[in-house]
């Protein structure tokens, strides 16, 4: 077999005979850490279309800037608690 699995750490050692198909089959339901010469080189995780959308959004500079602005507003006390907003808008 091309893969050596360490069951304690769920790692896979890459070799020149490693198969991408085998790796993807192994990572379908669990995270798999890839190592080369004893060092971590990649992590393969189960991923679906929703994950791909979030992955793209989380790397969007505009989204990152909006998170930074929101954090600054929290630091400056320019926020309202959810319960207070519901009370103000008369929402149960």
In words, what does this structure look like?
- This protein is of the alpha+beta class and 92 residues long.
- It has two domains: 40 residues; 40 residues.
- 42% of the residues lie in helices and 17% in strands.
- The protein has a four-stranded mixed sheet with strand order 1-2-3-4, with helices on one face.
- β1 and β2 form a beta hairpin.
- The longest helix is centred in the last third of the chain and has 15 residues.
- The N and C termini lie far apart (60 Å).
Write the layout of secondary structure elements.
Blueprint: E1 5-6, E2 11-13, H1 20-26, E3 32-36, E4 39-44, H2 49-58, H3 61-75, H4 82-88
Parallel strand pairs: 2-3
Antiparallel strand pairs: 1-2, 3-4
For the report, how would you describe the main beta sheet? 4 strands, mixed
Radius of gyration: 22 Å
**Shape annotation:** elongated
Tell me, rounded to a whole number, the average pLDDT. Answer: 84
Are there runs of 5+ residues with pLDDT below 50, and where?
Answer: none
Strand content: 15-25%
Q: How many individual domains?
A: 2
User: Using DSSP, what is the number of strands?
Assistant: 4
* N/C terminus separation: 60 Å
Query: How do the SSEs run, as a string of H and E?
Result: EEHEEHHH
Derived structural class: alpha+beta
The percentage helix is 40-55%
Number of helices: 4
Q: Going across the major beta sheet, what is the strand order?
A: 1-2-3-4
